[in-house]
Design goal:
The complex is a heterodimer.
Chain A (H helix, E strand, L loop, with lengths): L11 E5 L4 E4 L4 H7 L2 H11 L14 E4 L14 E6 L6 E6 L3 H7 L4 E5 L6 E6 L2 E6 L8 H14 L9 E4 L2 H4 L7 E3 L2 E3 L4 H7 L2 E7 L9 H17 L1 H10 L4 H8 L20 H8 L16 E4 L2 E4 L3 H6 L9 H14 L3 H16 L15 H9 L3 H6 L3 H8 L7 E2 L2 E2 L9 H9 L30 H17 L13 H5 L4 H9 L4 H9 L14 H9 L5 H21 L11 H4 L14 H12 L9 H6 L6 H4 L10 H11 L4
Parallel strand pairs in A: 1-6, 7-12
Antiparallel strand pairs in A: 1-2, 3-4, 3-6, 4-5, 7-8, 9-12, 10-11, 13-14, 15-16
Chain B lengths: L1 E5 L2 H6 L3 E4 L4 H12 L3 H5 L2 E4 L2 E3 L10 E5 L6
Parallel strand pairs in B: 1-5
Antiparallel strand pairs in B: 1-2, 3-4, 3-5
The chains are: A alpha+beta, B alpha+beta.
């Protein structure tokens, strides 16, 4: 199947590991126009097969790897790819986004996406070169760490090419994926599709790795104009205070100090918002004492990745989340230990966010006498061993491998098990950025700051909008969730969206106009509501600050203005929600632990709680959902989702299984009904 | 004596993370920082400020024992 649009390769591959059959999956230009690519495209594919998926770790689950139309066009930060599936951590749809070069090489092989279904009887790895697909035994790689297996694959590819090094993209899993740790990740070079347990789904299919190479070229519809736009865009990102200064110099780690002063830095399992030893684990310390070199993905001018030394080897440094959650989160002030743990978790193939939060929950459960597990805040000497135990499901590690929701159902402490819909939260403490709290609660994949709309950038980080007011937070959340959804769908990094805030507002926080914007923002809800309800009225390209829609037009040839871009993001977001509602999600699941909604961060100051229910009402209205959180027919119709199979599907039993279900299964297996 | 702490990229640019000095206002503190580091004063004046953990404006007065923090706007993920 081919396409009339530029930017796409026009083919989607379907690999059934049970039969070894490779086929082309039908995907039309109409679907390209409506569902763009990336996580939105993956959501559509999964929605078409939702009724067939028995459970997250069943062979019937799909692992959908997608690229976007901008991948390979030279647009800045556009080499990302996405992995979507039904998550073993949450039981609902998850999407996990990754940098590196796998997406680029998948398109070089001639494919926009790769769908993997079924389960191989024995461990295998998949080699793709152009239109040739080969499944190889992977028994010799089973158990290998992610770095080692990637080196091993390079050697294997070279063997097959008379010793020549083969340029390729890879995705691999480590022991955590093999052993079905619910938050196992997929690793690609040093980058990770970290969240939601996509690695466990890959492991459940007995698929250790995929390599991809090829020699096809991505063709933009208007290549010369695209080139000119890209040049201007790179220049703009280079000159912007966030994408051209903070991110390249400090990476995401640079946020630790700002979050500390805003009271937003998760400390002692989010009990507090400030960590007294933050200076020992912040981005400045990392940059001044440890950073070896900055690294970035293909075609990325931002270069947010750090490099540090662990055991004499230069490895990827930790991001903000890892610094925050394995620093103040567990009361550890040794940054070198965080480097080491970050490396170990990557090698084992585990999400640092979920691993860290599950650990801090366990420490608090022990402290409160709910679960005698030997883990204590500030005690770090056994943690490296613990990661290994989790990945190999040994001892207490076997239970920690289930995640914090599962553990809180077994041992209690739901009020401080910091997750939303089963996915552990990022390092931002939402009581001092209540809009982000709403984002965490409503995010389609669970407790995610980015999928949640990242309102914290306006609530004290970039801008200084009142962080405690609920005003305009719901409409802002909807707008930024939709915007970021589409950026992700096109294959671009979400960090390019920070340039959406004009540089002068960020560079001059003391200027009268910046102060005025900060004051006006809480009153801007109605204006944002108009764009949320009627995005098509914005039938222009936003000059300078937002090049994404123009790039989509030039790359694909679609008619895509700012409004249609937002609408495409909205379609993706609502489709993901629709899928989740068919898996039992309602307004009752859009929640946060009581630590955030019932206990003020500052004693006696009720404004330092998240007024979630107040914001949710406005949010559902702005989204076109009923107050039970279900998309109304009107919004489905408007977004052309009403005729999809998933829209007509009945609600299923939830696919997440807690400890009670596991005990029941064990009892059944023992014949003890 | 006031303790001044600088965070964000400005700390890397000016090569100084902390300064202890006698000063009675944020504006004066910015002037002193410029003298001490050779970095233009405007670079300091356009930061966000916090005194003893509380966000304040450029015009704020300082007292003996205060901790002044200079922060650049930031974003990440």
């Amino acid at each position: 199947m081919s396409t009339n649009y530029g930017g796409y390769m026009g083919k989607v591959a379907l690999v059934d590991l049970a039969t070894g059959r490779i086929s082309e999956y039908p995907w039309t230009d109409e679907e390209r126009r409506l569902f763009i690519g990336g996580k939105t495209m993956a959501a559509k594919i999964i929605s078409d097969h939702l009724s067939e998926i028995v459970s997250p770790l069943d062979p019937s689950n799909l692992l959908v790897v997608t690229t976007g139309p901008l991948t390979g066009t030279g647009a800045p930060s556009s080499s990302r790819f996405n992995i979507s599936t039904i998550s073993p951590l949450t039981g609902i749809l998850t999407s996990s986004n990754c940098g590196g070069n796998f997406g680029y090489y998948l398109k070089k092989a001639g494919y926009d996406a790769l769908i993997i279904t079924g389960r191989s009887e024995t461990p295998v790895w998949l080699q793709i070169h152009n239109d040739t697909f080969r499944l190889h035994p992977a028994d010799d790689m089973w158990g290998m760490l992610t770095g080692h297996v990637q080196e091993h694959l390079d050697e294997k590819l070279a063997e097959g090419a008379n010793g020549r090094k083969v340029k390729n993209g890879k995705i691999v899993i480590g022991p955590a994926g093999e052993n079905l740790v619910r938050y196992a990740s997929v690793v690609s070079n040093e980058r990770l599709a970290g969240r939601g347990g996509v690695g466990a789904v890959m492991g459940s299919k007995n698929l250790k790795a995929v390599t991809v190479s090829g020699n096809k070229m991505v063709q933009a519809k208007k290549p010369e104009q695209m080139l000119k736009l890209n040049q201007k865009w790179f220049k703009y990102l280079h000159g912007h205070p966030l994408t051209g200064d903070q991110m390249p110099r400090l990476g995401t780690a640079g946020l630790v100090s700002a979050m500390q002063f805003n009271g937003q830095l998760s400390t002692k399992n989010y009990k507090y918002g400030q960590y007294e030893d933050y200076e020992k684990v912040n981005g400045e310390t990392l940059a001044e004492k440890y950073n070896i070199v900055n690294k970035g993905c293909l075609t990325c001018p931002i270069k947010c990745a750090r490099t540090v030394e662990v055991n004499g080897k230069a490895v990827k440094g930790p991001e903000l989340e890892t610094l925050g959650l394995l620093g103040g989160g567990i009361l550890n002030n040794d940054i070198e230990l965080i480097f080491k743990w970050n490396f170990e978790l990557d090698e084992l193939g585990m999400d640092t966010i979920s691993a860290a939060n599950t650990l801090s929950y366990a420490m608090e459960a022990n402290e409160q006498g709910l679960w005698d597990n030997g883990l204590e805040f500030g005690r770090t000497e056994t943690i490296s061993q613990l990661w290994d135990d989790i990945a190999h499901r040994r001892g207490v590690g076997n239970e920690l491998a289930e995640g914090s929701r599962w553990l809180s159902e077994k041992y209690g402490g739901k009020d401080f098990a910091v997750h939303a819909k089963g996915m552990e939260l990022a390092a931002y403490e939402p009581r001092r950025a209540v809009g982000l709290g709403l984002g965490y609660a409503t995010s389609n994949r669970g407790g995610c700051h980015l999928n949640g709309g990242y309102m914290v950038i306006m609530e004290g980080l970039g801008l200084a909008m009142d962080a405690q007011t609920p005003h305009a937070k719901a409409d802002g959340t909807v707008m930024f969730q939709d915007l970021m959804e589409c950026i992700s769908a096109t294959g671009q990094c979400l960090f390019t969206s920070y340039a959406f805030f004009p540089f002068f507002l960020l560079k001059y926080p003391q200027a009268w106009y910046t102060k005025a914007v900060n004051k006006i923002l809480p009153m801007a809800g109605p204006v944002m509501r108009i764009i949320n309800k009627y995005p098509e009225i914005a039938c222009i390209h936003l000059p300078v600050i937002f090049n994404q829609s123009k790039a989509m037009e030039l790359a694909t040839g679609m008619n895509m203005k700012f409004g249609t871009y937002i609408k495409a993001g909205k379609r993706g977001y609502v489709l993901e929600r629709l899928i989740n509602t068919k898996l039992g999600i309602t307004a009752a699941d859009d929640k946060l632990p009581k630590r955030f909604t019932d206990t003020p961060q500052v004693e006696g100051d009720d404004s330092t709680k998240v007024p979630l229910e107040t914001m949710k009402k406005v949010y559902y209205d702005a989204r076109g959902f009923d107050q039970n959180g279900l998309p109304k027919e009107k919004i489905l119709k408007k977004l052309k989702l009403d005729n999809l199979a998933v829209a007509k599907m009945p609600v299923r039993q939830p696919l997440w299984e807690g400890p009670a279900a596991a005990e029941k299964k064990e009892a059944c297996a023992d014949g003890n009904h | 004596m006031v303790t001044i702490k600088i965070y964000g990229t400005l700390r890397l640019k000016c090569g100084m993370g902390q300064l202890e000095t006698y000063t009675d206002s944020i504006k004066d503190a910015c002037r002193l920082l410029a003298l001490a580091t050779g970095t233009p004063e405007k670079e300091f004046r356009r930061c966000k400020f916090a005194v003893n953990g509380k966000r304040v404006g450029l015009g704020t007065k300082l007292s003996d024992g205060d901790e002044l923090v200079l922060l650049a706007p930031s974003g990440g993920g």
